[in-house]
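[Q] Does anyone have a clean structure-token version of this?
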Amino acid sequence: MQIPSDRHAYPAHWEADVVLRDGGTARIRPITVDDAEHLVSFYEQVSDESKYYRFFAPYPRLSAKDVHRFTHHDFVDRVGLAATVGGEFIATVRYDRIDADGRPATGPADEAEVAFLVQDAHQGRGVASALLEHIAAVARERGIRRFAAEVLPANSRMIKVFTDAGYTQKRSFEDGVVRLEFDLEPTDRSLAVQRAREQRAEARSVHRLLAPGSVAVVGVGRAPGGVGRSVLDNLRNAGFTGRLHAVNTAFAGDLKDIDGVPAHRSVREIDGPVDLAVVAVSAERVPEVVAECGEHGVQGLVVLSAGYAESGPEGRERQRALVRQARTYGMRIVGPNAFGIVNTSPGVRLNASLAPEMPRPGRIGMFAQSGAIGIALLARLHRRGGGVTGVTGGSSAPSAPNTSNPSDATGVSGVSTFVSAGNRADVSGNDVLQYWYDDPDTDVALMYLETIGNPRKFTRLARRTAAVKPLVVVQGARHGGTPTGHAVRSTRLPHATVSALLRQAGVIRVDTITELVDAGLLLARQPLPAGPRVAILGNSESLGLLTYDACLAEGLRPLPPLDLTTGASAADFHAALSRALADPACDAVVVTAIPAVGEGASADAALAEALRSATGEAPAKPVLVVHVELGGLAEALSAAAGTGPQPSRTAHAPHTVSEPPTASGPRTASAPPGVPAPLAGSRLIPAYPAAERAVRALAEAVRYAQWRRESAEPGRVPEYDDIDEKGAARLITRLLSDGQGRTLDPDRTCDLLAAYGIHVHRALPAPTPDAAAEAARTLGYPVALKATAPHLRHRADLGGVRLDLADEAQLRHAYTELTELFGGPGELRPVVQGMAPRGVDTVVRAVLDPAAGAVLSFGLAGAASQLLGDTAHRLVPVTDRDASSLVRAIRTAPLLFGWRGSAPVDTPALEELMLRLSRLVDDHPEVVAVALEPVVVAPHGAAVLGATVRLAPPPARDDLGPRTLPVY
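[A] Here you go.
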């Protein structure tokens, strides 16, 4: 238990787990009076050179006075933090507040002197950089705005820590000492540096799990069967290239091995390092195993054991204790309740999972939070792994692959890495995204997510990943709540909103596992389409028409189908496909094929060869096949299945066309008449059993390609000279002076919005007919009379609004009508408002979600749009490109652009309004909700007729603070 120091209680919220540069973890926490022994022990392990750099003189040991000074802090003017591994200090940092003359001070002095000391064995791991981020955040919290540090010129490593941090700096040299001064306000560069370090560290931590040099399976049974023994067998059968160890406390003392794998009673008995431990023991025994692994220096754990958060509150606390214990030793965890991990790289061949067979190597990365869904994904990819390729003709069995050719061992549609994270108490989809981002072996990422623990971070990582490789996501548990094993922050946003935000980040959102695999295979095998124009050709008119209709339904632009008739030969298909691919008016081709009755496998193989040959001549456009599974066509289409279980050396397996024919190796079938010879390196063509599935996958690829083109020029957040950011901040501070959230009254709402150039039409209360007449004279005729009671507000369809009242007589008559229909003025709450130009009524909203961040929403006003959910969303801050796309994203957008002869409205004015509201919410996180309703967009200008604003102390933002691992 930590004991409070001099003035303030122990700040537990400063504690954090961080990932270091080499992928290991460390815990950062405040130093307290309890830490005297830790500090002395730490200092004794620091070299004399490092001590000299810290104190500018030989300083072999700390005096009692030093120990007292370095462990007694007030957590305001004097703060010390320590990075620990295994409970022992590996680095320290402290600051002391100083005045302008460099003497100890208290607030309001806003400068502090900072100093680090890192144990030599841990230098180069990025410990000092992580400590700097955290001590800077602490200092900002305590009102310190600037750090000063004095460093010896020879201490180049520490100088680099400061200069590389990205803060605004001043540097001077005096009396043989380098003095650095830097502001602590985060800058674009400091955030970029922080996120780049985060990516490298988290990617490295996942790499250590997926590419271990040695693996210990803890909980291996002596007899075949059981989870531990199964995983050990899977590792052996996959041909793991590193060292394997079997561990079980019940092993007899004279047992030397299990099927040739060295056997041990404890991880401590293993001679040599262990990089990864797969834990398959009961939950009660896991803490003992974790302690053994930590003391032995194991780098990571895959915990297959169940009995954690999925089992209830007691299991959830057991899960939290597991994470705390593992991080104490610097280890990361996949699981618990995990299915396992797979890495098919020839240099690793890791199958540390319950999958009995190793997936064939390929370019698709897969992540699943559910073991059952992970199994389904692997099975679907296995069954769908084929494509149209050059295959051996006739009915003879194809030859074994030429294992000397690397292209045979790795197919684009196979698996590169697979992670099934179970309860994902530690390693999550965010970590795996960090790894995939620059993984050269992964071209496409497929993810099954049931929860998103940090949506704000996920969308940031997804946007960056999607800019370089496709990311396809299916989200489960959309309507049934959070799975019991997942302890995450909840979002108040509807699933449709979250889905829209993911699409904005470039994520390809699909609804089913089948669609996930359909899209993944297309993206792995084919280039991205340059546009939505689709050519359709085939030997079935009906199948072509179905494909044409499916294209229209998905928003594509299909060309008239070309019917080759049922008598079309392979050469006819080749010629037609070649013409379509050469047509500049075509961006993609869908080939529909039904097998000819009575034709054998040779005809199917010839058709496959013809299509493959044609695509090799024009590799820049995607080609898909819709086939009817009759005869041997499906077999020919899937002959080069790149995702099935890896065959043994003696098994017969199909080969891909990238293998050149050799005298001793496999031989490809000769090309059918009228078809050119195969081209080396031809692509696999994905085949689909239904037109709708093929077209849906193609439509996702078209939308993703469009997003890639647009994201290359992401737009900008415009500056407006008339925005009074400081004035708005003063008003917000005054309104929140009591620390309580509040919905602003109409006057304060108008004042705050006006500071950002958003002007609301005045509405004056009209509790009596005379008051209504006086309000109308103040505003000037014509006016509108509106009921603002909750059940009538913004519901013109219910009759609670009277428009274009030209004089007092009309106004009094309308007042009488409203009160007779709906009740007295006290119930109706009538107001009078000046008329705005006629136009289209819209609604613009912004809300700050604790998990996802600030979101801007737009739709047309009225019950119909609400009923249909016709609302579009964008993350704040919104760019000019975002605002333009937001206006056009709703299904009813044509009403804004002159639908059926109506006058187009001023959408640029609407977009500017959105941009100003986005700036308000982004600049002031205390603005947690804004509704502008209605916003009437006229042919010239946009008028805000109603507005509500809610203020509250903002939720903490974990994406702007220092790097830290989440604690669920």
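[Q] Thanks! Anything notable?
[A] Residues 1-6, 386-410, 637-670, 677-681 have pLDDT under 50 and may be disordered.
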